């Protein structure tokens, strides 16, 4: 449940009225190490109770969690500290039993104190420990609500003594903005130019603010203000990691202007002066603002920089351009489980006579804001000569954000899974089959315009979203369209087509582009009931590259996490990254974008990535490859029991692929777990390997592909294959899937190994018995039980029989008679029929 019933919310409000406006504590005279630092939490009740409210020094603001146990609040002290005391100032919704823990890396935690039977109010705990991160971990709540803290204070000393204060001005010359300016001669930048003869001034109104971007999160120790005659009587000095959520470092009342210095304690990338009451009838006016930062501790992680050795940036005049593509293709054509990773970036312009053949782990993208900014008069080609004309293993490559005028009128894109084709304008036709029309098993198109006809030919299944096509011919089993202009009409009863007029929720993948000579990342806006391409309108926002930590091979997980804690986004350049700790994405709207199928490998059984239950995280364009020691969950989005409403700004997972085995032994209990509500999964291939090295029923064991616990989750283009138990297990309410492709595990040793609850085989797609509302379209499951062809699986799909659960266009297929299905869904649908690979279908259920 997302929100309290109105009556309970009013009762809670009434209880709060009786509380004093401030809540003093025994240590109020000291400045906590935690004040103004970056705080994160397992969940938030609403936008007004963010984690930073518990460390802002303001005892009238608070953090509160969702209504569930096992919630936590964490503060990053910015450097290793010796912690001696922790104070918790509880709101009426307090923790009866909880732990205070410390960590050096944000992943491995040590208990400082376990508290049982707390009665709320102010808890002061004397502790002893060293670490950078301190958290309150709730065990049992005292009320039906969540956990709520007015303030969470951590005291002690930073290693090596308190940080000194640099005499330099970290704000000088940095980008500045303001709520207003009096005129063109008093811009915000004039307060940070080092010239005491120029000034910023605002219009004559309260409140007004002046803000500077320091370029990275910094430890802040002092701010110098040089006021012009129009000064602030009352104002706040505030800091923020992201420029949106602010912590107050100092509140000043009754100031008299002139020159003043203020000692502060906190951290942030952005600092602002927020005026609440003017000292004169004019606006606010500052000659200069100087910001001083700490001199001890680790230096901040810097954003921006070059894109590393495996990003190949070209323009139409680049010498030997064709040779560059040919050289990479020669290395990558058959390197299915190799370590090479490459990204071609094409600057805007016209490229004549180019044939960009793409092998494994190779991506090509235009650097214009629109696809037509980058024109290829030639081809972007995927074929299957390396595999004797069989395209069923043409995985892990991509094309994006460019226009193609094919040399022969039709471009060839003969791919299988994990090979997205996004934001492409094909000025001709598109052939999805290999030369010779051998087997093919793809595929995915989004936000693309194909002027001519798309010919799938031997393609077994395909999903196309929010695009336009000049025509579409044939297809084998499952051709699905949503929001596609020119798509063929539904004919599932007699043919392969499922067509939905619009896509209910979509948001295109973030992409890198050039704005003049500066790299930026465009983050598209959410669309509802979309039909056709999103360009050239391009609703969304642009982020400069200095807002990203550009991750290059050799970067450590600790550095990546430090960058995230500073408020930076992540741009992974092509490479393989071994992680010895989980990557924690905790800030709303964080972008994690990979180039060239950048690959994350968790070592020693850690999880690869956790995403907090926050708004608007974008995960896109990377591969997670399970390590040889079992990981509990490779990717987790949200936290158990999460219930916040993210419908206005959902987290998206796009072209994020999971692999367990194939490149070597890999183990994971769960591959992807979605606990947050409203998540959009837009094209993923979650694969337990059926070939390669390290493959065997127990060698690369992985029980579950995708588990969805959050409500209102939408999957568009869902490919999940070969897991030891359920490939998809969906227990959240109001879930929706448009297109699902599955093969059951080939290597099931015998029927007994997968028999449970009187059922032979785990369903490819199971909706939990507790679910009352769920809907899905165009789902296919295929069996190829090569280890024991005598297995007869009970069904491909299993759902509760209730009016709110509606399944459309289901099919099961026996591939060459290697095993069979007895039914399609539950006990409904005809069995598969021997060796003929003809689908057994159910048009609607129930």
Automatic annotation (TrEMBL):
<feature type="compositionally biased region" description="Polar residues">
    <location>
        <begin position="177"/>
        <end position="186"/>
    </location>
</feature>
<dbReference type="InterPro" id="IPR000421">
    <property type="entry name" value="FA58C"/>
</dbReference>
<feature type="region of interest" description="Disordered">
    <location>
        <begin position="166"/>
        <end position="200"/>
    </location>
</feature>
<feature type="region of interest" description="Disordered">
    <location>
        <begin position="40"/>
        <end position="61"/>
    </location>
</feature>
<keyword id="KW-0732">Signal</keyword>
<dbReference type="Pfam" id="PF00754">
    <property type="entry name" value="F5_F8_type_C"/>
</dbReference>
<dbReference type="InterPro" id="IPR059186">
    <property type="entry name" value="SACTE_4363"/>
</dbReference>
<dbReference type="InterPro" id="IPR051941">
    <property type="entry name" value="BG_Antigen-Binding_Lectin"/>
</dbReference>
<dbReference type="InterPro" id="IPR011050">
    <property type="entry name" value="Pectin_lyase_fold/virulence"/>
</dbReference>
<dbReference type="InterPro" id="IPR012334">
    <property type="entry name" value="Pectin_lyas_fold"/>
</dbReference>
<feature type="domain" description="F5/8 type C">
    <location>
        <begin position="158"/>
        <end position="294"/>
    </location>
</feature>
<dbReference type="InterPro" id="IPR008979">
    <property type="entry name" value="Galactose-bd-like_sf"/>
</dbReference>
<feature type="domain" description="F5/8 type C">
    <location>
        <begin position="21"/>
        <end position="157"/>
    </location>
</feature>
<protein>
    <submittedName>
        <fullName>Discoidin domain-containing protein</fullName>
    </submittedName>
</protein>
<feature type="signal peptide">
    <location>
        <begin position="1"/>
        <end position="28"/>
    </location>
</feature>
